[in-house]
Amino acid sequence: MCIRDRFGAHRTVQVLATTFGSIYGVLALFHQLLTRAPGGGRWLADPQIAPGKRLTEVWFLKYGVFWILCFGVIVGGGLYVWFDRMHYMLVCGGLALPLYLQPVVAPWITGEAHLPLLERYCFKANLWLAIFGFVGNYWYTHYFYSVLQASYTMPSWDLNGVPIPMFFATHFYFTFYHAASNLVLRKVYTTYVDTCPRALYAVAIVLSFSYTTAFMESLTIAAFPCYNFADTHMAYTLGSAFYGIYFIVSFPMFLRMDEPKPSGTGDIFSWKQAMIEACATSMIVLCLLDFVRIGVTGIDLTMAQSRPCKLDASQTCAPFTGGYC
User: Fold this and answer.
1) Is 314 in a helix, a strand, or coil?
2) Which of 88, 145, 156, 251 could form a disulfide with 181 if both were Cys (CB 3.0 to 4.6 A apart)?
3) How far separated are the first and last CA of the chain, in Å rounded?
4) At what angle do helices 238-256 and 164-191 cross, to 10 degrees?
5) DSSP letter assigned to residue 267
6) DSSP secondary structure of 280-303
7) Spatial CA neighbour of 88 closest among 167, 150, 177, 174
8) Of 221, 253, 80, 255, whose CA–CA distance to 154 is shortest?
9) Is the pLDDT of residue 17 over 80?
10) Helices 164-191 & 85-105 angle (0-180, nearest 10)
């Protein structure tokens, strides 16, 4: 490793250490101001009031372990070097398929076989996340292209300049992230008395968990050479904050759906309301991303229909370098 690379890595570690130290220091400070509610709190939804939601979260988390192991084998074992367009489609689409099909063909997994399809929480959760994930790929990815100079360089069929397999991959990533965020936020709301410090603590939890989630994805995907950034330091530090904007909105919004009191309103969403909430969340995130682009970076947004490796074969990742992606 050259001196400049070592210096850059050291600088990145320093910035991240300062950032995470500050974030979790503030959390610890707010925690001292909280008052515990009688009876303690819960991580999972109440099995008596929201059994379908509880079992859906468990399903998303358990399935998350499976797809993470699959990706670990594929990336860690270097299997991706043998992948072509069809392989990426089959792997990402195949891993997303059980989540898409479960509400229809296996509602017993979430204990909702007795309910009509459109009333099942597992269906509404998948619908919500499918909409948010689609908007994220179709629109938000171009902010990463423009602001962070990110690029996908593997062979793939595209939609609006984004590899189609990423639309599928986003779905199983987001089901895991949002199930985990539900548990964390519910634990806060059910463990502590509803006070001003708890509200501040909940906001701090959302901000910290969003940044941490975004950073961990950036870190773990670094081993995959077909998704890269022009500036790794910027990707890990500012890029994690930029990506975290998705979650500072989506985490609390997703929790609202069919969430009993005290961590929610107790309202049961219809599938139409789930769609509306997902669209509203998507629009808020889009506005925030654009506000940051204009106010912080001042970089023009470019919506290219073709990835650079579609036009320049030298930019396609190994071992496909020399062929158009």
Assistant:
1) helix
2) 251
3) 29
4) 70
5) P
6) HHHHHHHHHHHHHIIIII-PPP--
7) 167
8) 80
9) yes
10) 50
Closest CA to 194 of 46, 323, 36: 36
Look-up of token digits 């969430």: 259
- Band of pLDDT at residue 107, cut at 50, 70 and 90: very high
Given a contact cutoff of 8 angstroms between Cβ atoms, the answer to whether 96 and 169 are in contact is: yes
d(CA 291, CA 309): 29
Residue indicated by tokens 């020399």 = 322
Only one residue has tokens 């001196």, namely 3
* Rounded CA separation 65/45 (Å): 20
Query: Cβ(240)–Cβ(215) under 8 Å?
Result: yes
| Closest of 151, 43, 167, 32 to residue 95, by C-alpha | 167
CA distance 207 to 215: 12
Q: How many residues does the chain have?
A: 325
Do the Cβ atoms of 159 and 138 come closer than 8 Å? Answer: yes
Q: What is the mean pLDDT of residues 243-252?
A: 98
Ordered DSSP codes for 33-59: T--BPTT---SSPPTTT-HHHHHHHHH
Q: H helices within the chain, ranges in order?
A: 3-31, 51-76, 85-105, 121-135, 141-147, 164-191, 196-221, 232-236, 238-256, 271-292, 308-311
Is the pTM of the predicted complex or chain greater than 0.90?
A: yes
